[in-house]
Amino acid sequence: MPSWRKGKRIGYCLNDKKKKKLNFQGFEDLCRKRGYEVIEIDLAKPLREQGPFDVIIHKLSDLILESGYDSQSHQLIRDFQTYVETYSSIILLDPFPAVRPLLDRFESYRLLQDLQDQDSCIFSPPYVELNSGTGREAAAWIREQGLTFPLICKTRVAHGPSSHEMALIFNEEGLGEVSAPCLLQSFINHDAVLFKVFVVGSSHFVVRRPSLKNFPRGESARKSIFFNSCSISKPESCSRLTELDEATLEPTPPSDNVVRRAVRGLRAALGLSLFGVDLIVEKQTGRCAAIDVNAFPGYEGVPEFFSALLNHIETLLESHEQAARARVLVAEYSLHQRAPHVDTAQESTHDADPRAPWLASSLETPKSAPAESSFFTFAVLPAMLSRH
Ligand SMILES: Nc1ncnc2c1ncn2[C@@H]1O[C@H](COP(=O)(O)OP(=O)(O)OP(=O)(O)O)[C@@H](O)[C@H]1O
Ligand SMILES: O=P(O)(O)O[C@H]1[C@H](OP(=O)(O)O)[C@@H](OP(=O)(O)O)[C@@H](O)[C@@H](O)[C@@H]1OP(=O)(O)O
Ligand SMILES: [Mg+2]
Ligand SMILES: [Mg+2]
């Protein structure tokens, strides 16, 4: 058994619904088979009584959201955060500051806009944020921003049951029926097919799902349609809103290259290991639009999820161990640089570690660039260590 696996403890914190939907017991079994100890975290008890942990997997979106207005939840999140900061070697999937932006569509859609600015392989349909009042007051602003009817209205909060309540608005009158805080976005015709991209570290999986049908572009007299998104793009969804009015050819999925670039851009921007992005292909142009980003989604239709998750965890554990070893070597070396005479028993402290001679010659860095610099410790040294 490799040293980075030995005695390692994986904690997890998921609500009953999530555990059941994922069939998380299967993941526990896989981990135990590889020699890990798996612990279900009880938030009602102090973490230090349940630890130590090398890895913690969670979906604490409810609690993170509640911590904004509920003091008990705030305390729980603060204690959790303090614990993982105190034991900084814990790998948290995923860190709270990285999860938070995905709980707020205002923040996550700004990220999608940035992604579009960086790489035009993907676009983010134009939208406006509604901070107060109804959509009616924002009608002029909506036109100025180049939005086109129909519009889709989504709540600002992106997680939880009420976050999936949406509306399709076909005219200015309909704008009066939706109120802040919400976001209005141009509806993009895409032949009722959505591509869910599920990301696990450096791996991703594309799953085809049903989606909203096409609507004629431009303002029309139609009444607004209120719907719950949970009935639209699940594998089993079967809604009149996903039934196309006329037969069309199956849309071509986004190319591997486009998906890879979108995932790469989002991973860099989000700093998350577990997330999903929803892509649709615009009927008129064939361009690919990103319309939603989700923290720790369901991974339904990805049979490789558990193995990908464990592989990702193992990659992180291994690189953490390498970084820790590198830090020790650097510390030993810099100690020797500062006081080489302390070592009287040996001709050279380099003999203390068989790797030290090559390490020492590689560490001849100018005084202005200390060997402890984080780039050196986390990038150069691990690479050198893995070669020796
Ligand atoms: N701009 C858009 N143009 C066309 N269809 C859209 C657009 N935005 C969303 N949709 C449709 O509405 C559905 C719900 O939208 P969205 O994915 O933003 O909601 P959600 O509740 O965050 O979904 P999830 O359950 O994936 O978190 C999508 O699955 C897609 O069918
Ligand atoms: O449970 P499900 O399989 O429906 O997963 C959904 C998940 O619900 P969860 O709360 O149970 O994780 C949702 O999270 P919240 O909006 O609640 O944050 C969101 O991420 C959806 O995108 C997921 O659906 P998917 O995109 O995978 O189809
Ligand atoms: Mg979605
Ligand atoms: Mg979503």
Automatic annotation (TrEMBL):
It comes from the Eukaryota. Mg(2+) 1 binds at D278, D292. One of its GO terms (cellular component) is cytoplasm. Keywords: ATP-binding, Kinase, Magnesium, Metal-binding, Nucleotide-binding, Transferase. Residues 119-313 form the Inositol 1,3,4-trisphosphate 5/6-kinase ATP-grasp domain. Pfam families: Ins134_P3_kin, Ins134_P3_kin_N. Its cofactor is Mg(2+). 1D-myo-inositol 1,3,4-trisphosphate binds at K18, K59, H164, K196, N294, G298. It catalyses: 1D-myo-inositol 3,4,5,6-tetrakisphosphate + ATP = 1D-myo-inositol 1,3,4,5,6-pentakisphosphate + ADP + H(+). Residues 9-99 form the Inositol-tetrakisphosphate 1-kinase N-terminal domain. ATP binds at residues 105, 154, 185-196, 211. Its EC number is 2.7.1.134. One of its GO terms (biological process) is inositol trisphosphate metabolic process. One of its GO terms (molecular function) is inositol-1,3,4-trisphosphate 6-kinase activity. Binds 2 magnesium ions per subunit. SUPFAM superfamilies: Glutathione synthetase ATP-binding domain-like. Mg(2+) 2 binds at D292, N294. Kinase that can phosphorylate various inositol polyphosphate such as Ins(3,4,5,6)P4 or Ins(1,3,4)P3. Monomer. Belongs to the ITPK1 family. This is Inositol-tetrakisphosphate 1-kinase. The lineage of its organism: Eukaryota, Metazoa, Chordata, Craniata, Vertebrata.
